[in-house]
């Protein structure tokens, strides 16, 4: 049942052919069997899950259940969960139990979703492979010698391995879309400000955005509908009416104008990815969409702009991890400065330190204008490019990642190569746009390839609708990795 | 003695704690004196994942201030992060305003004591005022070998008010600080409690040879929490800088602390180890946009400002600039004075001013009472003033009546002064015959003085007046006594 669509699971729950407790038990059993192979979970909350499932069964019996009531799910370990370890993939928070729930966590609790655990991630969401986790790398269920992508790699692997049907993630430069692509599932990052960041441990505040993983666009729509909405505790949260993203799924694709950025289809994309992406676009045409070439001339500047802005914000956001009030503190130190230095040197991993150093550097006196201000200008240019493109099309399609999942360890020693794997996803975050990745076929080594759809602001329903129509006509999203 | 004529240049940065209910970015209370960390919520402790939400009440107070000083309330200002590590700074950065503050410009007019009993006018221009959060407190004494952290104060809203380097003496600096202190209380944005740290001054001090255009190198004296310390610290610092330069030294830019026990300033850190705060706009907060509607609403709710009221006192009541300024030192004093004048009549406004600033102020000061707690009400004081005006009592007797009013001898009613005058038989004697009778008695008993006066000793006349007043138990009208006595001595 866990590998069914949310609609089918919800129907079964209502038909009493399965209970929430049985689903939770099933999910926990799958985790027990599958997690040792993929290391998708940092924390498994068996007791919490069973208690939540019992409450969900009571709601189902009382007839007050919603679409997610009784559905097992997992949270990326970036979301604070009251009474449950919240590590952010770091040694710094390896002992941290949050005294409060993130807004997303309380919304999903209120919806009756059953959290079975917290998923592995690149430390503080910094990475594209999940190798930067203090709790060991997550492995791709399609080939456990390859990475699942990152930084939400644990959530993507958990859904791909059918340990849970849905999971939350966050996307700062591609951290939902790239692992969704590499793991062969659907993942959406909504418009910046759609999902509250309250209780979501900050990496780069102006780019971080929560989102959803599922087998299909339809499942993502159901999960995202429950996560989104204005939260007065997050000043960047949009003051918009809650939206039912699943309400618009059946709209036919006829007349849809799909923009193809010529810069995305130039060199850089590997042949197997190109073949799958081209075939998927052909399928969209077959379903009635038209395609038009568009241009994003400044998109090539997205990576340098991102690697100024994101580390700048991160260097400040991560200052609170100082060993004073919570988190890791060095066992021995001589004075205050020594405590800071040792606690942070021991608590943070190499990639986090690298980004703190970069961020500190670009914000330093005398460099600020040359780096930070310049990067903000690029950001504006990149956002303008998208607006020009959307004058010609309703949504933009292209690759998610230049390659299929790469081998564990393959890029670990070359941070720049690792950063380049986000070349198609980062511009979207800089512009604050919604985008998703859906399965589009397979490439080298039988590994999944995703197609990225980028929408204009608040275009989530349109994106999910298009992907749903594609998934009605194709079965890539139903493919499962062997052994799970 | 200095060989050079030195000019002192002072600018002040004053942190005023805004009197909101809750903190600037969280819902925790800012009430003073709670148990350590009892008023620190998840946001104040900077738990992972928490976010700031701006308190509109703090913004409203900043607008009030901007309007009160005639500054520009920025239609758009930006919150920035000031990054540095300190245990009582939970986020590792302070949210403040840097490039675009909420208030720009403005000015304050002062009366500065000239040291010779007079006063002169002084205009101090303000550079800016910006909103920011306070840090917590490190408690070094309470824990042996360790430091305690109290985050109750963390996130308390502050308005940092920065002046131009317009002041030229410690007296001007103190007058400015006092005027600002009075203003923030007047417009009710700060309780002004200096012991509790609600109003803290940093002074930037430098000296230069008079006539030199460039400023000298400045040192910043941090955290002065009384006007006396402000004066002492600046005076010490000025002399220290002059001595250093005259001995051939050079002032190095530095942050210094004032030690009230020794009266000295001592360098805390030099420019070389100054922090690079790495300011950048806080991505967790949207730009602060203040609409003109909001500004106009706040303008409409502002009380009449001390400068305007003071001008009114001068124009309508004929008070001197000094008196008008003194009576507008606080809203309570101004209101007391206005109430007194309302009851005593505009014609007696000057007499009212003399009593409010003279006898009443002295007694309140001695009893360490605020004017709002005065045992003599405005109506009672007005009653006293009216009896002086209509010659029922002399000024000398009025002081006696005031004393009785202060001791509540006339009851709580507005006509307490009349009751006292009546009960104690203090009514002035103005009957010419009665006064002449007294004079005759006095002249008869003081022949020596009469002779001295006739011999040209003016002083003897005053002695005779005194004798007459004494003989009348102070009740004789002094002017009449004077006049009649002169006649008799012809």
Automatic annotation (TrEMBL), chain A:
InterPro entries: Amidase, Amidase_CS, Amidase_dom, AS_sf, GatA. The active site is at 76 (charge relay system), 151 (charge relay system), 175 (acyl-ester intermediate). One of its GO terms (cellular component) is glutamyl-tRNA(Gln) amidotransferase complex. SUPFAM superfamilies: Amidase signature (AS) enzymes. Residues 23-464 form the Amidase domain. One of its GO terms (biological process) is translation. Its EC number is 6.3.5.7. The keyword Transferase applies. It catalyses: L-glutamyl-tRNA(Gln) + L-glutamine + ATP + H2O = L-glutaminyl-tRNA(Gln) + L-glutamate + ADP + phosphate + H(+). Keywords: ATP-binding, Ligase, Nucleotide-binding, Protein biosynthesis, Transferase. PANTHER family: GLUTAMYL-TRNA(GLN) AMIDOTRANSFERASE SUBUNIT A (PTHR11895:SF151), TRANSAMIDASE (PTHR11895). Allows the formation of correctly charged Gln-tRNA(Gln) through the transamidation of misacylated Glu-tRNA(Gln) in organisms which lack glutaminyl-tRNA synthetase. The reaction takes place in the presence of glutamine and ATP through an activated gamma-phospho-Glu-tRNA(Gln). Belongs to the amidase family. GatA subfamily. This is Glutamyl-tRNA(Gln) amidotransferase subunit A. It comes from Zoogloea dura. The gene is gatA.
Automatic annotation (TrEMBL), chain B:
One of its GO terms (biological process) is translation. GO terms for molecular function: ATP binding; glutaminyl-tRNA synthase (glutamine-hydrolyzing) activity; transferase activity. Gene3D superfamilies: 1.10.10.410, GatB domain, N-terminal subdomain (1.10.150.380). It catalyses: L-glutamyl-tRNA(Gln) + L-glutamine + ATP + H2O = L-glutaminyl-tRNA(Gln) + L-glutamate + ADP + phosphate + H(+); L-aspartyl-tRNA(Asn) + L-glutamine + ATP + H2O = L-asparaginyl-tRNA(Asn) + L-glutamate + ADP + phosphate + 2 H(+). PANTHER family: GLUTAMYL-TRNA GLN AMIDOTRANSFERASE SUBUNIT B MITOCHONDRIAL AND PROKARYOTIC PET112-RELATED, GLUTAMYL-TRNA(GLN) AMIDOTRANSFERASE SUBUNIT B, MITOCHONDRIAL. The keyword Transmembrane helix does not apply. Residues 335-489 form the Asn/Gln amidotransferase domain. The keyword Phosphoprotein does not apply. Keywords: ATP-binding, Ligase, Nucleotide-binding, Protein biosynthesis, Transferase. Belongs to the GatB/GatE family. GatB subfamily. Pfam families: GatB_N (PF02934), GatB_Yqey (PF02637). This is Aspartyl/glutamyl-tRNA(Asn/Gln) amidotransferase subunit B. Allows the formation of correctly charged Asn-tRNA(Asn) or Gln-tRNA(Gln) through the transamidation of misacylated Asp-tRNA(Asn) or Glu-tRNA(Gln) in organisms which lack either or both of asparaginyl-tRNA or glutaminyl-tRNA synthetases. The reaction takes place in the presence of glutamine and ATP through an activated phospho-Asp-tRNA(Asn) or phospho-Glu-tRNA(Gln). It comes from the Bacteria. The lineage of its organism: Bacteria, Pseudomonadati, Pseudomonadota, Betaproteobacteria, Rhodocyclales. Its EC number is 6.3.5.-.
């Amino acid at each position: 049942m866990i590998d069914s669509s949310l609609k089918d699971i919800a129907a079964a729950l209502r038909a009493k052919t399965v209970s929430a407790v049985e689903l939770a038990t099933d999910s926990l059993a799958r985790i027990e069997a599958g997690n040792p192979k993929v290391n998708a979970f940092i924390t498994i909350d068996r007791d919490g899950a069973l208690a939540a499932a019992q409450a969900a069964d009571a709601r189902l019996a009382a007839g007050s259940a919603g679409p997610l009531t009784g559905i097992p799910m997992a949270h990326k370990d970036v979301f604070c969960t009251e009474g449950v370890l919240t590590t952010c993939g770091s040694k710094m928070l390896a002992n941290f139990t949050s005294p409060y729930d993130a807004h997303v966590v309380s919304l999903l609790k209120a919806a009756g979703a059953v959290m079975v655990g917290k998923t592995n991630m690149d430390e503080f969401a910094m990475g594209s492979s999940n190798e930067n986790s203090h709790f060991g790398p997550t492995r791709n269920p399609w080939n456990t010698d390859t990475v699942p992508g990152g930084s939400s790699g644990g959530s993507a692997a958990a859904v791909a391995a059918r340990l849970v049907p849905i999971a939350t993630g966050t996307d700062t430069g591609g951290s939902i879309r790239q692992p969704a692509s590499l793991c062969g599932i659907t993942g959406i990052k909504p418009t910046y400000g759609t999902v509250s960041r309250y209780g979501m441990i900050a990496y780069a505040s102006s780019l971080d955005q929560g989102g959803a993983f599922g087998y299909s666009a339809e499942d993502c729509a159901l999960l995202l509908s429950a996560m989104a909405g204005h939260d007065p505790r997050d000043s960047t949260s949009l003051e918009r009416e809650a939206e039912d993203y699943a309400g618009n799924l059946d709209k036919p694709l006829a007349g849809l104008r799909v923009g193809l950025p010529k810069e995305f289809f130039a060199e850089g994309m590997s042949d197997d990815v190109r073949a799958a992406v081209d075939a998927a676009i052909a399928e969209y045409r077959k379903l009635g969409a038209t395609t038009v070439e568009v241009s994003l001339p400044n998109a090539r500047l997205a990576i340098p702009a991102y690697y100024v802005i994101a580390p700048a914000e991160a260097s400040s956001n991560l200052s609170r991890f100082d060993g004073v009030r919570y988190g890791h503190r060095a066992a021995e130190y001589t004075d205050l400065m020594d405590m800071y230095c040792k606690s942070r040197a021991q608590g943070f991993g190499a990639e986090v330190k690298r980004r703190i150093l970069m961020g500190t550097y670009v914000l330093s006196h005398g460099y600020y204008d040359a780096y930070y201000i310049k990067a903000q200008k690029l950001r504006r240019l990149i956002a303008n490019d998208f607006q020009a493109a959307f004058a010609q099309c309703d949504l933009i399609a292209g690759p998610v990642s230049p390659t299929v999942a790469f081998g564990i360890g393959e890029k670990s020693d070359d941070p720049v190569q690792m950063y380049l794997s986000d070349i198609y996803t980062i511009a979207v975050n800089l512009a604050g746009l919604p985008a998703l990745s859906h399965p589009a076929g397979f490439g080298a080594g039988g590994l999944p390839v995703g197609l990225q759809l980028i929408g204009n602001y608040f275009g989530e329903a349109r994106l999910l609708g298009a992907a749903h129509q594609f998934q009605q006509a194709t079965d890539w999203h139903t493919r499962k990795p062997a052994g799970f | 003695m200095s060989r050079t004529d030195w000019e002192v240049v002072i600018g002040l940065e004053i942190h005023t704690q805004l009197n909101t209910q809750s903190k600037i970015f969280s819902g925790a209370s800012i009430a003073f004196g709670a148990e350590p960390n009892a008023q620190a919520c998840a946001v104040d402790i900077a738990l992972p994942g928490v976010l700031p939400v701006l308190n509109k009440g703090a913004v409203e107070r900043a607008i009030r201030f901007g309007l009160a000083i005639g500054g520009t309330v920025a239609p758009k200002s930006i919150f920035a992060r000031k990054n540095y590590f300190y245990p009582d700074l939970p986020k590792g950065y302070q949210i403040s305003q840097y490039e675009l503050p909420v208030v720009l410009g403005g000015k304050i007019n002062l009366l500065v004591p000239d040291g010779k009993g007079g006063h002169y006018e002084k205009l101090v221009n303000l550079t800016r005022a910006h909103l920011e959060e306070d840090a917590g407190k490190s408690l070094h004494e309470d824990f042996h070998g360790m430091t305690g952290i109290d985050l109750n104060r963390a996130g308390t809203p502050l308005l940092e008010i920065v002046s131009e380097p317009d002041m030229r003496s410690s007296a001007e600096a103190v007058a400015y600080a006092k005027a600002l202190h009075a203003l923030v209380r007047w417009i009710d944005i700060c309780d002004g409690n200096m012991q509790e740290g609600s109003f803290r001054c940093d002074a930037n001090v430098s000296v230069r040879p008079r006539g030199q255009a460039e400023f000298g190198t400045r040192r910043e004296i941090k955290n002065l929490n009384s006007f006396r310390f402000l004066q002492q610290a600046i005076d010490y610092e000025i002399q220290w800088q002059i001595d250093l330069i005259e001995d051939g030294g050079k002032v190095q830019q530095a942050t210094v602390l004032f030690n009230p026990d020794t009266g000295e300033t001592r360098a805390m850190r030099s420019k070389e180890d100054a922090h690079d705060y790495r300011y950048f706009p806080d991505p967790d907060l949207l730009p602060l946009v203040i609409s003109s509607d909001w500004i106009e609403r706040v303008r409409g709710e502002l009380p009449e400002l001390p400068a305007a009221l003071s001008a009114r006192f001068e124009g309508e009541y004929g008070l001197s600039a000094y008196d008008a300024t003194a009576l507008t030192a606080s809203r309570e004093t101004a209101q007391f004075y206005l109430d007194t004048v309302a009851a005593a009549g505009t014609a007696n406004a000057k007499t009212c001013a003399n009593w409010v600033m003279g006898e009443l102020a002295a007694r309140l000061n001695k009893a360490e009472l605020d004017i709002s707690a005065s045992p003599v009400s405005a109506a009672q004081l007005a009653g006293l003033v009216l009896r002086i005006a209509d010659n029922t009592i002399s000024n000398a007797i009025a002081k006696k009546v005031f004393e009785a009013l202060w001791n509540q001898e006339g009851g709580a009613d507005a006509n307490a002064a009349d009751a006292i005058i009546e009960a104690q038989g203090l009514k002035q004697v103005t009957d010419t015959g009665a006064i002449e009778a007294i004079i005759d008695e006095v002249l008869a008993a003081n022949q020596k003085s009469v002779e001295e006066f006739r011999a040209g000793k003016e002083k003897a006349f005053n002695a005779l007046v005194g004798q007459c007043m004494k003989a009348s138990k102070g009740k004789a009208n002094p002017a009449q006594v004077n006049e009649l006595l002169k006649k008799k001595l012809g």
